[in-house]
Structure formats: structure tokens, C-alpha cells
Amino acid sequence: MNHPDIHFEQQGDVAIVRLSRPAKRNAISDELILAIRDAFESMPEGVRAIVLDGEGDHFCAGLDLSELKERDAGAGLIHSRMWHAALETVQFGPAPVIAALHGAVVGGGLELAASCHIRVADETAFYALPEGSRGIFVGGGGAVRIPRLIGEARMADMMFTGRVYDAKDGERIGLSQYVVPKGEAFAKAMELAQRVAKNAPLTNYALMHALPRISEQPADQGFLTEALMAAIAQSAPEAKERVREFLEGRGPKVKKA
Ligand code: 1HE
Q1: How far is the CA of 57 from the centre of ligand 1 (A)?
Q2: Mean pLDDT over residues 239-244, rounded?
Q3: How far is the CA of 164 from the centre of ligand 1 (A)?
Q4: What pLDDT was estimated at residue 112?
Q5: Same fold for the pair 6-197 and 201-247
Q6: What atom of ligand 1 comes closest to residue 83's alpha carbon?
Q7: Average pLDDT score, the chain
Q8: Mutation choice for ligand 1 from 5, 25, 158, CB with most ligand atoms inside 8 A
Q9: What are the domain boundaries of the chain?
Q10: Atom 12 in ligand 1: which residue has the minimum CA distance?
Q11: Mean pLDDT on 78-103
Q12: Which homologous superfamily does the CATH classification assign to the domain defined by 6-197?
């Protein structure tokens, strides 16, 4: 991974991808969206979970608006499709992605966060879709992914009125699954990534690739896909070993939260 705006690091089976354009609040230029795609496409073998972070006080200020002014309709279409392709590599890439959010998570930054599997926010995080007030529309898959997190009405309100959610309300409505004190999002994301990395690979595969498809299917098809995925997952030697461990009193018990 070799791009000036992306820092890549590997700690055991967890990879860290950090947007590193803090002077521009990690705004995503064409070059940066392609670098994100390349980073997720060329993950080293053995990476079992990925943490996505942003350098500086803000996770990501969204699309680099300085590149928007030159674009005509045709170029806009291609540009949006380029974002779709890049964020597909995040959502359906080699391993689950845990986003560590802080400061601005806005516009395309929220679209990027929505393509991750788990979002951990610190108390400084805030969410907005300023596209509405800038006379544009989401173009990085947000119209598909964000309503799945918070519902269409809340997303429309964010765009109609410029509503900004803080970290606490963001968790309440489903923009993040966790809120932690200021400065602790990365550490919490790493802790979760290490836990996710220990899952049986087929479990993580099912959660990344089957679950989102099942939830889009009509119920009768979803039940069948679920049954097929369950049958495949439980037939893996690793699943059998984990169940045996529990039955022999060696596996972990579920503890009260
Ligand atoms: C930028 C961008 C950007 C900052 N494109 N240059 N996104 C937005 O509409 C959000 C625009 N940004 C902001 O509202 C604020 O910058 C923040 C709340 C994120 C941060 O505020 P602050 O006070 O910390 O920083 P700043 O002084 O506003 O910005 C620092 C520099 O970053 C400054 O450049 P400089 O050369 O004057 O130092 C800003 O111009 C620059 N900067 N954000 C370009 N977004 C797939 S379609 C997705 C569509 C969208 O994402 S639209 C939403 C775009």
C-alpha cells in the first residue's frame, strides 16, 4: 500500500487503513477514492479484520468539493459509479471492516462509514449530509446504505433540513453501534477487530456476504438462503470443533452484559 493520503499498517491479522489527508479534513479526491479501492483490493493474505480510521480531528469531510466544479453530467455519472465500485470493495472485500469515527463524518464520509460493517464513534463525532444544502445528491451509495441504517425518513430529513446528529443521537438512531469517550474510537475498534478476527472465517463470510443479500430478498427466498448458508457454515470443521469445545465444557459461555 503506497499512497501519500493513505496510511497502511498490519498488526497480526488486523489491518489498519487510515485516511491521511488531515489538512483537507480527509476530503476524498478522485485519487483518494481510487487509493481506498486499491487498499481494500490488495489486502495481504491473512488479514482477518480491518480498521478504517481518519487522521486528525475529523474522520472524513466527504467528497473533495474542489473537484466538483469542473464536472458535467456524463462525468458525474462515471464519478458516482467509481465511488460505488470503491465502496463495494470495502463492504464486500476480504474481511469485516470496523470504522473508527470522530469529528466530521459527513457527506461521502458518512457514505464510506456506511459501507463498513461496524461503526465505533467517539463523543466528538457528528453526522451530516450537506449535499442537500450544496444543491447536489449523495453519489457514493448513501441512498442505498444509509436508509438501511436509519430509515429513509431520517435520511431525507438530514438532506432536506441540514440536520446534524451528534455522537449520542447517532448511536440512538443507528448510525453507529458504539459510542466511546473522546479519543478512544480507534482503541475500541481495534479491540472489536481482534475479536472479529477470531471468528470462524465462514461466520464472517456469511455476515458480510449472505446477511445483506438475505435482508433484500423476499422472506421465502431469504429463509432458503439462510438455510443454505447455515448448512454450509455448520459443516466446516472449525464449527464442529467449536461446538465440541462447548459441549465438553472448554468453550466460552455467553456472559450477562
Ligand atoms: C475541503 C472539504 C471538502 C474541508 N472538499 N476541501 N462535504 C462538505 O460539504 C463538508 C465541507 N467541510 C466542512 O464543513 C468543514 O471543513 C468540516 C466541518 C469538515 C471541518 O471544519 P474545520 O473548521 O475543521 O476545517 P475547515 O477550515 O473548514 O477546512 C480545512 C481545509 O480543508 C480548508 O482548506 P484550506 O485550503 O482553506 O485550508 C477546506 O476548504 C478544506 N476542506 N472539507 C474540499 N469536502 C460521492 S458524492 C459525496 C458528496 C459529498 O460528500 S458532498 C459533502 C461535501
Answers
A1: 12
A2: 89
A3: 15
A4: 98
A5: no
A6: 46
A7: 96
A8: 25
A9: 6-197, 201-247
A10: 61
A11: 97
A12: 2-enoyl-CoA Hydratase; Chain A, domain 1 (3.90.226.10)
User: What values do phi and psi take at 116, rounded to 5?
Assistant: -85, 170
Share of the chain above pLDDT 90, in %: 89
Set of cell numbers at residue 181: 469517550
Q: Rounded CA gap, 81 and 64, in Å? A: 16
Domain 201-247 coded CATH 3.40.830.10: no
- Higher-confidence residue of 135 and 171: namely 171
Q: What is the pLDDT at residue 239?
A: 87
Q: What whole-number distance in Å separates Cα of residue 126 and Cα of residue 83?
A: 22
Pocket of ligand 1 (CB under 6 A): 24-25, 27, 58, 61-66, 83, 104, 106-108, 130-131, 134, 138-140
- Is the pLDDT at 125 greater than 90? The verdict is yes
Average confidence (pLDDT) over 211-237: 95
- Cα of 54 from ligand 1 centre, angstroms: 14
Would you give the DSSP letter of residue 3?
B
